[in-house]
Write a structure and sequence with these properties.
The protein is α+β, with helices and mostly antiparallel strands. Helix content is 29%, strand content 19%. This is HicB family protein.
């Protein structure tokens, strides 16, 4: 199984990095560095998947892929 795509970006408003998993609704985390945001979102992902499993909710298959533009 493919793993879920993770976006990591800097947020001026939050004064730190945000990591989110688009396929898992509302699964995101904050960190002072990109590495910290990634560690935190991995914890959030595990909790999200465990909660969905316990509640009998459908766990979506990984399918999100960002659009990557190439110039030149």
């Amino acid at each position: 199984m493919k793993d879920y795509h993770i976006n990591i970006f800097y947020s001026k408003e939050d004064e730190g990095y945000i990591a989110d998993i688009p396929d898992l609704k509302f699964c995101s985390a904050w960190g002072e560095t990109p590495e910290e945001a990634l560690r935190e979102v991995m914890i959030a992902k595990a909790a999200w998947l465990e909660a969905a499993s316990i509640e009998g909710k459908v766990i979506p298959q990984p399918k999100y892929r960002p659009i990557i533009y190439q110039f030149g």
